[in-house]
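Thread: "does anyone have the structure for this chain?"

Original post by V.I.:
We have the sequence but no experimental structure in hand. Need at least a predicted one for the grant figures.
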Amino acid sequence: MRIRDLLEPIRTIGPDEARAYMQEHKEGTYLLLDVRETGEYEQEHLPGAKLIPLSQLSDSLHLLDPEKPTIVY
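Reply from O.Q.:
Generated one for you, tokens below.
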């Protein structure tokens, strides 16, 4: 499975649009994915974010739900 298959259509949004999306949708209806490294995540992260470091993402695709919209930061 390729990451593109899980995340299509891919669209870039800015922080204001992401914030608005999260306010308008119930937590759990989308995936908030933090792709930074563990130390960065531990210092600070958005509430509800799931950590999968970018370096591990291709090996962790099975953890993503292709049925849910995914916001990656």
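V.I.: this helps a lot. The mean pLDDT is 91.
O.Q.: and Helices lie at 3-7, 15-24, 38-43.
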